[in-house]
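Input.
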Amino acid sequence: MRTFILAIIFIAIAASFSSATAKTAEIPKCIHKMIDGLNSTPRLSPYIRIDSYMYRGKITYLATSSCCDRFNPLFDGECRQICVPSGGFTGRGDGKCIDFGEKGQQLENIWTVPRA
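Output.
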């Protein structure tokens, strides 16, 4: 019985590592390329984080700006900018996806700026 319980625990741990790897593998190459560029100059990065969201039935990526009146663009899986849900002088973005606050469901944090 003890061996059976240990086997189940081992399988559960292995599955959790597998799903974490799968999440990373699902991030599009262009998002990885964007992150690599941001990591190359972290102190000058215009963004402080990138989060994945489910929005209008698709996985999207929100880049949150580092300060003030800068836009926070939303990208699709091919790194095309969909809209800007927030930021700017009014804080309301570009007005092209005003329902993002209600309909966008945050999935996970993909990247955070590695500033020291």
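The mean pLDDT is 83.
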